[in-house]
Known about the structure:
There is one protein chain. By secondary structure, the protein is mainly alpha-helical. The protein contains nine helices and no strands. The chain has helices at 8-26, 29-36, 40-46, 50-73, 79-100, 102-114, 116-139, 148-158, 176-191. Helix 1 crosses helix 6, helix 2 packs across helix 3 and helix 5 (79-100) packs antiparallel against helix 7. The model has no long low-confidence stretch (mean pLDDT 91).
Amino acid sequence: MATGTLTPERILEATEDMLRRHGAAKATVVDVARALGVSHGTVYRHFRTKAELREAVTKRWLDRTSEALSGIVTGSEPPEAKLRDWLTGLFEAKQHKAGDDPELFATYTVLTGENSGVVDRHIADLTDQLATIIQEGAAQGAFTTTDPASTSRAVFDATNRFHDPAYAGEWSKPGIEPAFTAVVDLVVRGLRR
């Protein structure tokens, strides 16, 4: 049997390990339970269904990016620097996820497709972070906008090539960084007064 208290976090860590090793199609709750030294029924006490477990592990994976970027939003930099840093942080986080662990990235691409509600909430969180930066810029006179929420969504959409997993194959190609910088420069010029 497992040593220590079985927590949802331990289950999610084991699930992520199983997903890394076996992929989304072959990782099962029984595999996760076996890795933890517990019965699959014990896992189901924390996550009622396999779908709920997969949703939780997907949310955990996406939340890492949101949490890393939230520090930029609350930082003391001027809004333009925050915006540039935030967009760069998002792009780099996605590049690292795709490049550092391509098997797990591919697995999570499958899982995010299954969990559109989790993805929608993640995108809403990211665009809310952007809206906070843009609102701060508008309040300080650095940006022009009458609707920070719709402006943040437009910025998010305009930079889609650099954070949407559908474009992951492009993120390691030569010239991607200058292309990213050109888009960010264009976005920032568009927001300035």
